[in-house]
């Protein structure tokens, strides 16, 4: 599932590709991906423009010139492609937004959605999300504050979107590895020094992942050399049995609350 770095990569690239470009039409082959009737969705988009793109947690917010917001959550298996009909991957699309001879394709949007809201509605819908871990105002002191009273283990807590926004299976494991802490540890057992290591690891891993376009390697457009480049740089995620880059010990895969979890049992404690 796309996480914070993947959605931030989409935000940055799509801002360059489609911001302020006139929308010439749209098509919908899966009405369940929307929260409005397809006819209304197409009517509202045609002749409109996306004037700004925000990211909040794992969501993208496409701000329309007419005042509405398209709220996107790709969920498991969802991705996007921008290009001509000839360039389009041979995959089923659920929603397409047209920009003349180029199109923004929403692919694998079976569990995900592209909903249309008024701006105040979006703020209400996203109000339960936790802090953004890369916000300038999210200091170590604030991180310590959100840790207070948490009794679960590190893996489950990091992927809880009401705790922090945007971290999922991949980056929770990468952050724990970078900090040298087992993802199975209870938060209540972390020392202040370990909390600080975790905070620094969270920021460094997420920033590096954004720099290299995240780990999901489906290109956004023909010639895209950024999207998915972090996959080769993952230290533990989906690397079961491979030697740890720090100590050479084989990496372990387990399940934590039905989520796959990767770590080094030798150098994470």
From TrEMBL:
The protein's name in its UniProt record: Formamidopyrimidine-DNA glycosylase
Domain called Formamidopyrimidine-DNA glycosylase catalytic: residue spans: 2-106
PANTHER family: FORMAMIDOPYRIMIDINE-DNA GLYCOSYLASE (PTHR22993:SF9)
Keyword Ribonucleoprotein: no
Pfam families the record matches: Fapy_DNA_glyco (PF01149), H2TH (PF06831), zf-FPG_IleRS (PF06827)
Family: Belongs to the FPG family.
Cited SUPFAM superfamilies: Glucocorticoid receptor-like (DNA-binding domain), N-terminal domain of MutM-like DNA repair proteins, S13-like H2TH domain
Annotated transmembrane regions: none
Cited InterPro entries: FPG_cat, FPG_Glyclase, FPG_N, H2TH_FPG, Ribosomal_uS13-like_H2TH, Znf_DNA_glyclase/AP_lyase, Znf_FPG/IleRS
């Amino acid at each position: 599932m796309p996480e914070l770095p993947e959605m931030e990569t989409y935000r940055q690239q799509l801002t360059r590709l489609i911001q302020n470009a006139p929308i010439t039409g749209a098509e919908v082959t899966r009405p369940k991906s929307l929260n409005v009737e397809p006819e209304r969705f197409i009517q509202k988009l045609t002749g409109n423009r996306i004037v700004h793109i925000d990211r909040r947690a794992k969501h993208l917010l496409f701000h329309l010139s007419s005042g509405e917001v398209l709220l996107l959550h790709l969920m498991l298996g969802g991705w996007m492609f921008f290009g001509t009909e000839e360039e389009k991957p041979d995959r089923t699309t659920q929603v397409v937004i047209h920009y003349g001879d180029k199109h923004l394709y929403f692919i694998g949007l079976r569990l995900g959605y592209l909903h249309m809201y008024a701006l105040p509605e979006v703020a209400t819908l996203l109000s339960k999300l936790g802090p953004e871990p890369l916000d300038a105002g999210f200091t170590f002191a604030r991180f310590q504050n959100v840790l207070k009273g948490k009794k679960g283990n590190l893996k489950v807590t990091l992927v809880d979107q009401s705790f922090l926004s945007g971290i999922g299976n991949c980056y929770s494991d990468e952050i724990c590895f970078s900090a040298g802490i087992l993802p199975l540890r209870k938060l209540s057992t972390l020392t202040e020094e370990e909390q600080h290591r975790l905070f620094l690891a969270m920021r460094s891993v997420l920033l590096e992942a954004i720099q290299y376009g995240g780990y999901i390697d489906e290109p956004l457009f023909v010639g895209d050399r950024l999207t998915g480049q972090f996959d080769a740089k993952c230290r533990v995620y989906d690397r079961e049995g491979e030697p740890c880059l720090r100590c050479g010990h084989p990496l372990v895969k387990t399940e934590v609350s039905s989520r796959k979890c990767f770590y080094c049992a030798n150098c994470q404690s």
